[in-house]
Amino acid sequence: MKLHDYAPLNTQTDEIRLLRIVQMGDVLEAEIQHFVIGDDCPEFGAVSYLWGTPQSNLTIKIGSTSLRVAPNAYAALSILAEYQFAFLLMDEIGCEDCEDWEQQPEWLWIDSICINQADIGERNHQVSMMRKIYGSAATVYSWLGNGSPRVFSAMRMLRDFTYKEFMHRQYEEDISYCRDDFDFDASELSDGLYELFSNPYWKRIWMVQEFIIGKWVVVLCGKMRISWDQIGMFFFNRFRQSKFEILHLRVATRLQSTPANPLIQCRNAMSVSKESLEIERPWAGHLLSHLTKVFEGWGSSDPRDKVYALIGLVGSGPEVDYAKSTGEVFDDTMKFYIEHSRFQAAYVVRLFAESLARSLRLGERKIRAISYLRDGVCVFPESPRGLVVGKNFVICPHGAHCFEWEAANMGDADSSEKEIGVGTIRRRQHVFRESRWTVEEELVVSSGDGLMDNLRLVLCQCV
């Protein structure tokens, strides 16, 4: 069968592809259509999952063509399709239990299928839209794989807890409903939840944005499902019944050591103030720095994703461009960080640069020059001969003014002034020294004409 050939997306709009499973069998059959996110776009679910092994003989049929799909993506689609068709069948025959099921959207967005991965321009466009895609999805499905009996048992207990808590709130006068007929095994729950929250899924960098941005998240493990609201009720101890509070104390402490914990805390914090995700703020650089450090150890097949997967949480960031090298992504990210941050001490800038370099797998890259300029243009050179360019002056740490720069910054006096090009540099404060760094100074820059007085510049030179 002929391989599927993607029709191009209109990258000048918010156009995306959506997938709908139309038939199950030995091979999944689906259709793909283009939609622009907005009023005319159908309700859809977005799938969040581990890519896993890319090589696969599994295919789905799209019209008269076929499309290769990785095993984990195929498993997620199969479970979602099975649930969807079961719901439709129960609804058709008028099954009373159908009313207790949540109908899921027919249309799905799954990145490995809905993005033409061979088209770099399209990848750039779609990745830059990830925040909008997952934020617009009616449901985000977090697929954790096939699971285990221990995980299934814990998920069932959580569902029972939250259901009984709901009934308790509805009928508080009949508290015996929840008090007399419910037994639980704290050890069994603790072991199952620890395994659930230690799943490799939680250590994938793209999952951070997908999980936190989603309006309604459903966790899928095999054929078991549970909403995030149910998990959150337990995790944040939103129970009114004392017996559940005691259970929470016995289990929750252990879960704080799992990789899911920082994600859960971030989602809870951001859900308190959704507006903070919608505005451009002067602290965007600080937020990106914090997220980069928190999730530095999270995995990705492409190191550039360690930046691109986080900018959706910030609301803005360096332009997504997979044609750029990791070194260029480093430079772009540092430039964004400095232009969107309040003034930082030099050592804070350095720590972020080193964390970012590790995330991008640049090794023990020595940062030749890091420039912090409150206004103007900053260049972060890989070459030691790079320039730092301002509006009315040029500083060249390793060029024509090298000796003057050293004289102005390495002298014995606490304060000195030296003319460099058209501007003046005066040492204000010595900030940090260690064996690797020859000098790290906080300076005040004056252009000589008063237009740039009192701008702060941090120059860090590493040998």
Structure report:
- By secondary structure, the chain is of the alpha+beta class.
- The protein folds into four domains: 15-143, no CATH class; 149-276, no CATH class; 279-365, no CATH class; 366-463, no CATH class.
- 39% of the residues lie in helices and 19% in strands.
- It is built from 17 helices and 16 strands.
- It has helices at 71-93, 111-114, 120-128, 130-136, 149-170, 176-179, 186-197, 205-213, 228-235, 242-255, 260-272, 284-294, 305-308, 311-314, 326-339, 346-359, 402-409; strands spanning 15-23, 29-36, 44-48, 59-62, 65-68, 107-109, 139-143, 217-221, 224-227, 369-373, 388-389, 394-395, 417-420, 423-430, 437-446, 455-462.
- Strands 5-4-2-1-6-3-7-8-9 form a nine-stranded mixed sheet, with helices on both faces. A five-stranded antiparallel sheet has the order 10-16-15-14-13, with helices on both faces. The chain has a two-stranded antiparallel sheet with strand order 11-12.
- Helix 7 crosses helix 10 and helix 8 packs parallel to helix 11 (260-272).
- It is globular and about 55 Å long.
- The chain starts with 14 loop residues before the first strand and ends with a strand.
- 35% of the residues are buried.
- Residues 89-100, 175-180, 275-280 and 366-463 have low confidence and may be disordered.
